[in-house]
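Hi V.,

You were right to ask for the full record rather than a summary. Here it is.
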Amino acid sequence: RRRVVGRVIGADTATARGAVTVAATAADAWARTAADRRAGVLEGAADRLETEHARFIAMAVREAGKTLPDAVAEVREAVDYCRYYATEARRLFGAGRRLPGPTGEDNRLELHGRGAFACISPWNFPLAIFLGQVTAALAAGNTVIAKPAEQTPLIAHAAVQVLHAAGVPEEALLLVPGGGALGAALIADPRVAGVAFTGSTETAQAINAALAARPGQIVPLIAETGGQNALIVDS
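Predicted structure:
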């Protein structure tokens, strides 16, 4: 029996540009937020996901068509991402590391956020990979414009609500549901300082070409792409 799972209004390119404006403006303040504070927010989001696990399992089943075991694993993986990147935020983005140098010099290695990141996630892991991309970018001190797969925006919206409730400023994390044209508009925006993408190799190559054509500094692309490969399992 078919049921209405929910309703969504897709963002247009003007809305996407507005989201980039908000995220780019907020980038400096979020980057200056202490790494321990950013980590604490992600740990709070993990706690909330565990508290609300039944709701997210149900959404994974109803919206993404997952089986119950897959839906349980989906939520667990999303929680793991939150906790993992919280740990990495403290380890990599804390006080910095003193490097060896000549007498009289103080050489330190410090890592900082780059600005506004576009995170584009797939439908087959609508919570885990969505949150994996978003929490990694937030942990590193970047603001995020998140574009979930067109097929699964509802669970992404619920995940963003969890992060906001845990303490991520609304201007540091914005959700823009929509299709491929929306993703292309985000990638073309010169204020987007980086892209995280999971999906087809062909789309990743198109994103890579579009970013390479932009003038100015090289824009990082973190792409997880895959093929449908044969697997032979033997005892």
